[in-house]
């Protein structure tokens, strides 16, 4: 997609006042380059059933008491959310008590166990933030002000997504949080590796010749090039004023 950006910029400049032509030309560009702009979304959607199935299976195993084994510093893979007296975030928000002579209250599970369960969600928020920053393209300073503002607003909203995921991880079995962390780690490594590879080996995309004349003045194009550009939908054609003063009469002969 990055290799096609110069052509997209030329299209937006050429058809700045004609959004319909702009969209048609960009669609034609993707078609000629044999690229699908939704390919990345399809990969994410394909993973969704896997995650939902894993969530269901891990939750049921935790409820049946089959995930009581510890993992690293985590006391158990099922976590405190599926215990006999805890549901959701009750293990963290309820049952705080203050021992005689103590200055501060402590959670119902004790500080050591509670911090052990809190560590993985905190790590998950961190890795999710790093992964999202690594995968987000930088904001192009040459974008129109309105488009640039919209992109920055979207990226600003997405910055809160890791916190939402961290909040969700506090209410699911610890095994699911570990899976999510592992997935983030592999996604980050894959993103860094792919970017490094294509930076050293820029992709070469072959396009029809008329794309090379996209930014040319129609007056400087040959009749054959104008015909190809018009067939591809890349020729803006004469304006009403140009037709009236006869500048583009030759287009009809």
Topology:
Blueprint: H1 5-14, H2 19-33, H3 39-63, H4 90-93, H5 111-135, H6 145-158, H7 161-169, H8 174-200, H9 223-231, H10 240-245
Helix pairs in contact: 1-2, 5-7, 5-8
Number of helices: 10
Oligomer: single chain
For the residues shown, what is the average pLDDT? 73
Q: Structural class given helices, strands, pairing?
A: mainly alpha
Unreliable parts:
238-253
Main sheet summary: none
Distance linking N and C termini? 39 Å
Quantity of strands, as a count: 0
Helix amount: 55-70%
Strand content: under 5%
What would you report as the Rg, rounded to the nearest angstrom?
Answer: 28 Å
- Backbone shape: elongated
Order of helices and strands: HHHHHHHHHH
Family: Belongs to the OXA1/ALB3/YidC family.
Pfam family, one: 60KD_IMP
Subcellular location: Membrane
GO molecular function: membrane insertase activity
């Amino acid at each position: 997609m990055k290799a096609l950006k110069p052509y997209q910029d030329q299209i937006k400049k050429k058809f700045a006042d004609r959004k319909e032509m702009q969209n048609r030309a960009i669609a034609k560009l993707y078609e000629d380059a044999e690229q699908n702009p939704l390919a990345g979304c399809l990969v994410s959607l394909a993973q969704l059933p896997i995650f939902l199935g894993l969530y269901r299976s891990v939750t049921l195993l935790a409820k049946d008491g089959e995930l009581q084994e510890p993992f690293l510093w985590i006391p158990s893979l099922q976590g405190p959310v599926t215990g006999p007296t805890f549901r959701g975030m009750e293990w963290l928000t309820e049952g705080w008590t203050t021992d005689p002579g103590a200055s501060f209250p402590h959670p119902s599970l004790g500080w050591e166990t509670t911090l052990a369960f809190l560590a993985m969600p905190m790590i998950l928020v961190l890795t999710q933030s790093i992964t999202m920053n690594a995968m987000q393209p930088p904001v192009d300073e040459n974008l129109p002000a309105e488009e640039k503002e919209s992109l920055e607003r979207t990226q600003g909203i997405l910055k809160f997504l890791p916190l939402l995921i961290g909040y969700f991880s506090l209410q699911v079995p610890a095994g699911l949080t570990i899976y999510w962390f592992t997935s983030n780690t592999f996604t980050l490594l894959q993103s860094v590796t792919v970017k490094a590879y294509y930076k050293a080996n820029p992709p070469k995309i072959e396009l029809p010749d008329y794309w090379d004349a996209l930014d040319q003045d129609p007056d400087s194009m040959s009749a054959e090039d104008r015909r190809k550009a018009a067939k591809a939908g890349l020729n803006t054609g004469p304006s009403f004023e140009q037709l009236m003063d006869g500048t583009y009469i030759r287009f009809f002969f």
